[in-house]
Amino acid sequence: MLDLVSPIGWAVLAGAVGCWSLGMLLHVTELNVIALALTVMLVVAVLFVLGRATSAVTLDLQTDRVVAGTRAVGRIEVANPSGRSILPTRIELAVGSAATHFPVPRLAPAGTHEELFAVPTTRRALLVIGPVRSIRDDPLSLVRRQVTWVREQDLFVHPRTVRLDGASSGLLRDLEGTPSAELYSSDIAFHALREYTPGDDRRHVHWRTTARTGTLMVRQFEETRRSHVVVALGNLAAHYERAEEFELAVSVAASIAAQTHREEKELTSFTVDARQRTRTHRHLMDDFTLVGQLENRVPFHALGQKAAELAPGASVVMMVIGPLTTASELNTAAHKLPVGVRAVAIRCAEGAEMRRSAIGGLDVVTVGSLDTLPRALRAVGR
User: Strand, helix or coil at 340?
Assistant: First the structure.
């Protein structure tokens, strides 16, 4: 009940009590008149907010997931299901830490009023839309009554991504698998011929060589692996100068992960302190929306160690890093990766020119904007 009275209302109430007390004690008529006027104002204000709240309010978001830079559109509908008119009121919609107000006119029985709204987004975030409250107050805002009608709804603002169809034909696309050093009696990549031993599959007998040598010979193959792409996002706060550089890194990692997911390759995506879900594209983008910078002082090579633990059979590891990551840290992390893996580090430096370098067996490419990512990956894939 105390929340009904605004700070102005409390000031008026204190003034009325003070004037009544002094007026009665000192027998000052003017103070009694002021006290009476203030009391009448409070009584009238209370009459404005009396009565039951009979509105029916609904909140309808067109979608609960948008990409950064686009608008989320929604609709608020206020209906009067009662048999009598409803006085004018205001609707308050909370959006994150801010709030906006919509005036609602007098509603006749069974009448409705609709308001459309748009939430602009500039960068990825998890926005809380709501609650929706109806507010009734007096003209002087002495007393305020609010009723919550709709609870909060989550709005995921996904990071901006680019398609990598042109780049995927080189580095990310895998047609026959990546051969390994393991030898098997059946696979795709032919390795050599050897003499037949009991238990070998006779479908792999090489009859032409058998006829020429007089010895039963069979084909031997190298084990091949389906592409397994690892996207490792370095989210250590000490490796980024500005928030814009970290947002670029998140968009780069999300773009590579999304392309891998579209091509139905095996994907493992993680940061130093979290792992993204890869079952669906929605889950993947939701988790990238929640990625934040890690303030703890964790050694960077933990990123490479985590890749080796989560995906020991990976074929490609894409490490997305900040501009302050040193060559020594990259080299140490690369030595933690699985043996035989193709490793690429993408350094994200806002506004920098695209360039390619190498640190040992690790390819390093610098991107200054998200739009240059496809060209950068084509350069690495050559």
Answer: coil
Residue 69 sits at the vertex; the CA angle it makes with 346 and 283, to the nearest 5 degrees, is: 65
Put simply, whether the predicted model's pTM sits higher than 0.85 gets the answer: no
d(C-alpha 151, C-alpha 126), whole Å: 16
Confidence of residue 184 (pLDDT cuts 50, 70, 90): very low
Enumerate the β-bridge partners of residue 256: none
pLDDT in tens, 64-119: 999 999 999 999 999 999 888 888 888 999 998 888 999 999 999 999 999 999 99
Please state, in angstroms and rounded to a whole number, the distance separating the CA atoms of residues 268 and 256.
11
5 — pLDDT class (breaks 50, 70, 90): confident
Q: What is the mean pLDDT of the chain?
A: 86
For residue 2, is pLDDT > 80?
Answer: no
Which secondary structure element, helix H or strand E, spans residue 165, and what is its range? helix 165-167
Maximal C-alpha separation, the chain: 133
**Residue 220 corresponds to which amino acid?**
Q
Q: How is 273-312 classified by DSSP, letter by letter?
A: S-B---SSHHHHHHHHHT---B-S---THHHHHHHHHH-T
CA gap 95, 125 in Å, rounded: 12
CA 306/CA 314 separation, integer angstroms = 12
Token look-up 């603002």 returns: 157
Return all residues near 84 (Cβ < 8 A) that are at least 6 apart.
109
How many helices and strands (H and E) does the chain possess?
A: 9, 18
Among 370, 319, 360, 313, smallest CA distance to 338 is for: 313
Which residues are registered as beta bridge partners of 344?
318, 363
Strand order across the 266-271 sheet: 266-271, 228-233, 316-321, 342-348, 362-367, 355-359
String of DSSP letters for 90-159:
EEEEEETTEEEEEEE--B-TT-EEEEEEEEE-SS-EEEEEEEEEEEEE-TT-SBEEEEEEE--EEEEEEP
- Which amino acid type is present at position 366? T
From residue 370, how far is each of 140, 173, 250, 287, 351 by CA, in Å?
Answer: 52, 20, 10, 19, 10
CA distances from 27 to 19, 20, 36 (A): 11, 10, 14
62/65 Cα distance (integer angstroms): 9
Closest by CA to 347, choosing from 326, 331, 328, 332, is 326
